[in-house]
Design a protein that fits this description.
Chain A is built from eleven helices and 13 strands. By secondary structure, chain A is an alpha+beta fold. The chains are: A alpha+beta, B alpha+beta.
Chain lengths: 412, 473
């Protein structure tokens, strides 16, 4: 079956307004949907990046001391809490820190150099202040070297912390600092102070959720964290115990000392809840863009159906005439669909250019890179398929028309 | 879904008769014509809603969704980017001093938004400003004397007394602490309405005692509910859309007691200082300073003073770069802080795109709808209806569709605003409420969109030649 292209095109020129409207609609939809799919896919990858820790079993306690404590008092109270937590049934391990991976309240930015006099650091990283329990608490794997020994850990807080001592770094940071050789036993410089790398662990995300370029370059520094105002307790539950612990940990801590504040609502939270909150903006944007894209695609399909139905109706007599002159039903169907296809093609071509323009505009507002052509191709394919499906019902109706229509009046 | 759109033929023919009759009737009673015609067209429009029910619902739904999306995101954006103190914009300024030099990495070439402790002390010694507020966030715990009340922690700020006057803080009871309290750092405290409710059941608690972090404070004032959003006054405080702050201490008191900031402290990379004493001497920035400068001459003098101060630091060897300072007023400050999350802007743009697409769609559907009624238009025109009459009738019909879209749009807007927390953080979502003005805006926008969408289809409808239609018939 050959499809007569020329008559179809010349028929189209008789409906300039309708053609223009559908094409414009398709173009706008493509411009928005292609960019939306791109942003959605980027954010989904971002949201689903792993922290590298035993997320399902970790519970975080935001503990605040009441009253003005001295550093010594804070250390004693923190030690008592940790001792109680570690022997509590259902607790695998626990330690205190100022923050935690991927969704932490704070971050300490470190620039790490290979030379004492280096001007700009070889790599940025974010620090954890941990005792010898941190690796087991997070469930990260020691890839090389060893963990801290208890005698290497010195007490510290927000304002007073040791700047010396060995460090443990992640694989990602090790690869960045020493691409060709083992980093074990090597000295690196943080603020002009030499720190020896004694261990390398599997990748663990840094505290700040927004970190992108050095998201897995964490450093562990041997400090038994005990701030005078309070700490984050990171607790790893035995499998299946996390929810039980989340509900009972505050009471257990109040039993050790009542002079503290653990917020009744969000003082104790599962790591997964905290993480999900940290990405809530990104998830919100994904939901929003998905909904907007779906509405747009449906609207476009509806628009195509509406206008095609009208065209078919309007040309009842012509269609009847063609059928009377020997055109098969499939010819009519092919005519309507081909006509629709040309309009869609026009729309998607204009839309592709528009999509790039929208992308350039969006780069002002979002951390966004240039739109890969793949997303435009994908968006066009979706719109062409959807557009043809939408036109199918009116096209079938046209094909069903009897040749007798040619003889009927055109009113209505 | 029924797409058989010819079923209403009989209806249409009947309606043409009615319309034609009405046309001649209305022509006769001219005085009554305008208003009467309008009501009549409105009724026609209402009746025509049931015509092509699928397409009509689609149009109404599209207008409603486009309008609701735009209004919701607009309401959000306007709340987020609102100037919290428009009347004070021209008088309140934030001085900034570059103490990082060419090595700054995270501030995008700008001086830090906050100041070091010693710079705050030095700048406060200048008496050009009519008021100065030094501010830093604090988070204090309390074990109330009343043992039935659980120990709790409250957020607030350490501020100088001018803070309350500069930012127009309203008081329910009492007021700000005295100048002596301010200078000596006495144990005065101003508390928020919520805290007063919780501790003293909303009674006048001025003069009563409040234990905080092991010290006893005397309540000088209770604020009315006060929470201008975004929380522009403390740059250290990243919780720009937080709940109202509940505790305000004299700045000097907090410094004397070495109460640490509850906000972020921005230090040089690899800062090695230990303890409070190192911090107040360091180049770490953690205090916001606001100055009130009532006139342009004062602003110029203060800007010159600020630059001079930075130059002096360069000359005495603290900086080794030329003085680099900023003096932003409240408006410029809000823009600089970029408080509005980019997600709010992008969702507004997406919603506008959606509205545009829905409008284009409606143009197409209205065109199909009106042109399908070409025959009745032709007959009416042939029987004497003026072009303007056709115009009015179809515009009114479009407005009726817009009105229906607006009503549905209001419902959707209320639903969207109620569920904003699915898309935005709860603390941002709860800043937006649906009120009468939003609903009025939704209805007007919907009708406007419908009328704009109808402009071209109506024009086409009014061009239909009576003779041509009659011939075709």
């Amino acid at each position: 079956m050959t499809i007569p292209i020329r008559p179809i095109l010349s028929a189209l020129t008789r409906h300039k307004a309708g053609v223009f409207l559908i094409a414009l609609q398709v173009a706008l939809t493509l411009a928005i949907v292609a960019n939306a799919i791109f942003v959605i896919s980027q954010r989904v990858i971002y949201i689903s990046r792993p922290t590298g820790i035993d997320e399902a079993n970790i519970v975080i306690i935001d503990n605040r001391w009441v009253g003005a404590l001295t550093a010594m008092q804070a250390q004693a109270k923190t030690a008592a809490d940790l001792a109680m937590l570690r022997q509590l049934p259902g607790v695998a391990d626990a330690y205190a820190d100022y923050s935690f991976p991927g969704a932490g309240p704070w971050a300490t930015l470190w620039g790490i150099g290979l030379d004492v006099n280096q001007q700009s650091p070889t790599s940025y990283s974010e620090a954890y202040f941990t005792d010898e329990h941190a690796l087991n608490t997070y469930g990260v794997r020691l890839v090389a070297g060893r963990n801290f020994r208890a005698d290497e850990v010195t007490p510290g807080s927000q304002l007073e912390q040791s700047t010396a001592g060995p460090i443990i770094i992640t694989q990602d940071l090790a690869k960045k600092l020493f691409p060709a050789e083992s980093s074990l036993g090597k000295a690196v410089y943080v603020g002009g102070v030499a720190r020896t790398i004694i261990g390398v662990i599997s990748d663990m995300q840094v505290p700040a959720v927004g970190t992108r370029t050095f998201a897995y370059r964490s450093v562990l520094s041997p400090i038994g964290w005990a701030d005078v105002s309070g700490d984050q307790y990171i607790v790893r539950a035995s499998p299946g115990q996390a929810e039980h612990l989340r509900r009972t940990l505050a009471a257990a801590l109040y039993k050790v000392s009542r002079l503290r504040v653990i917020d009744a609502v969000d003082g104790v939270q599962s790591f997964q809840a905290l993480r999900s909150k940290a990405y809530s903006r990104d998830r919100g944007l994904v939901i929003l863009l998905t909904a907007a894209s779906a509405i747009l695609l449906l609207a476009t399909a509806g628009g195509i159906i509406g206008i095609t139905v009208y065209w078919v109706d309007e040309r009842r007599r012509q269609i009847g005439l063609r059928r009377a002159l020997g055109a098969k039903r499939s010819d009519i169907l092919a005519h309507v669909l081909t006509e629709n296809f040309f309009i869609l093609l026009l729309g998607t071509s204009v839309g592709s250019l528009l999509a790039f323009a929208v992308n350039v505009a969006l780069m002002h507002f979002l951390e966004m890179t240039r739109l890969p052509t793949f997303y435009i191709a994908l968006g066009s394919a979706v719109l062409l398929t959807l557009g043809q499906c939408a036109a199918l019902t009116p096209a079938r109706r046209a094909a069903r028309m009897s040749p007798m229509e040619a003889t009927r009046a055109a009113i209505g | 879904m029924s797409l058989n759109l010819t079923e209403t033929n009989r209806d249409v023919n009947h309606q043409i008769l009615v319309e034609v009759t009405r046309d001649s009737v209305y022509k006769k009673c001219r005085g009554y014509r305008k208003a009467g015609m309008f009501i009549y067209y409105f009724n026609l429009g209402m009746r025509s809603l049931s015509r092509n029910i699928v397409i009509t619902s689609l149009m109404i739904l599209l207008i409603a969704v486009g309008v609701a999306g735009s209004i919701t995101t607009y309401a959000l954006l306007s709340v987020l980017s609102a100037n919290p103190l428009p009347s004070r914009s021209q008088q309140l300024f934030v001085p900034q001093i570059d103490n990082r030099g060419p090595n700054r990495i995270t501030t995008g070439g700008e001086p830090d938004p906050e100041l070091t402790f010693h710079d705050v002390v030095a700048l406060r010694a200048n008496h050009e400003p009519t008021a100065q507020a030094a501010i830093y966030p604090i988070y204090l715990s309390s074990v109330p004397a009343d043992t039935t009340i659980q120990p709790f922690a409250a957020k607030g700020y350490a501020v100088t007394a001018d803070f309350f006057r500069m930012f127009l803080v309203p008081f329910e009871y009492g007021g700000v602490w005295s100048k002596d309290d301010d200078d000596d750092g006495s144990n005065a405290v101003v508390i928020g309405r919520d805290l007063n409710q919780r501790l003293f059941h909303g009674e006048n608690s001025v003069g009563r005692e409040l234990p905080l972090e092991g010290h006893v404070y005397r309540i000088a004032g209770v604020m009315e509910q006060w929470n201008p959003l975004p929380r522009f006054y403390a740059a250290a405080d990243v919780q720009a859309f937080d709940l109202p702050p509940q505790i305000f201490l004299p700045f000097q008191r907090a410094i004397n007691l070495k109460i640490p900031t509850a906000g972020s402290t921005f230090c040089a990379l690899n800062y090695q200082g230990k303890g409070w004493d190192d911090l107040v001497r360091s180049e770490c920035t953690w205090i916001s300073l606001w100055v009130e400068l009532p006139d342009a001459a004062g602003v110029r003098r203060y800007a010159a003073f600020l630059l001079g101060y930075a130059e002096e630091q360069n000359a005495n060897g603290r900086f080794n770069w030329p003085g680099y300072t900023r003096l932003r007023d409240l408006d410029q400050w809000l823009k600089y802080l970029k408080i509005v999350p980019s997600e709010a802007r992008i969702s507004f743009i997406v919603a506008l795109g959606l509205l545009l697409a829905c409008t284009v769609n409606t143009v197409g559907l209205l065109l199909a709808r009106f042109m399908r009624r070409g025959p009745d238009i032709g007959i009416r025109r042939a029987l004497g209806a003026s072009r303007a009459a056709i115009y009015t009738q179809y515009l009114v019909e479009a407005a009726v569709i817009g009105l229906a879209g607006g009503v549905l749009g209001i419902l959707l807007t209320v639903c969207f605003i109620g569920n904003l927390n699915l898309v935005f953080e709860a603390k941002i979502a709860r800043t937006v409420h649906s009120d009468a003005s939003i609903m009025a805006l939704a209805i007007s926008l919907a009708v406007l969109v419908a009328l704009i969408a109808a402009a071209y289809p109506v024009w086409r409808a009014s061009r239909i030649q009576p003779a041509w239609q009659l011939k075709a018939g």
